[in-house]
Design brief:
single chain, about 150 residues, Methane Monooxygenase Hydroxylase, Chain G, domain 1, 3 strands
């Protein structure tokens, strides 16, 4: 149950802790987990919808970056492209690139690198949130914000 905690904690730490996105809940099970972000863009967020969607891609990539960080090496994941994180990232990247698959691929590469750097920077927060998640298995927005001290 350890890896899902770090995977989901990275989504939340990058999403809520760094970008300021609202995460409603986060949960883990033995071999999976999930989080519920507020994915509706609003002008009061202070960024354009395009910037918001790019941030979403980085947040989605952060889960994988955290597992690589946890294992101290890059892994190849056979099922990565079939997973929801990749599917939604690809959908957002295609939207941002006006349907150009080459440009979308470049956006994903950029987002993955950005996620890796943010995971390195935010590792103490990710670590703290992961262990809080291991203790409680599910956290609401208030618990996430309290743990991340935001």
């Amino acid at each position: 149950m350890r890896w899902p905690a770090f995977h989901e904690a990275a989504h939340c730490s990058v999403g809520a802790g760094y970008f300021g996105h609202r995460i409603k809940t986060v949960w883990i099970g033995k071999r999976d987990g999930g989080y519920s972000p507020d994915t509706e863009w609003r002008p009061e967020y202070g960024v354009s919808e395009r910037e918001f969607r790019l941030q979403e891609i980085i947040i989605l990539q952060a889960g994988r970056a955290a597992l690589d960080h946890l294992n101290n090496c890059k892994h190849y994941y056979d099922d990565w492209e079939a997973g929801n994180d990749h599917k939604l990232s690809w959908k957002r990247a295609l939207w941002l690139s006006d349907g150009d698959e080459v440009a979308a691929g470049h956006l994903l590469a950029y987002a993955m690198r950005r996620a890796e750097l943010l995971v390195d920077k935010l590792w103490p927060q990710i670590y703290k949130l992961a262990f809080t998640l291991l203790e409680h298995l599910k956290l609401d927005a208030e618990q996430i914000e309290k743990t991340l001290a935001i």
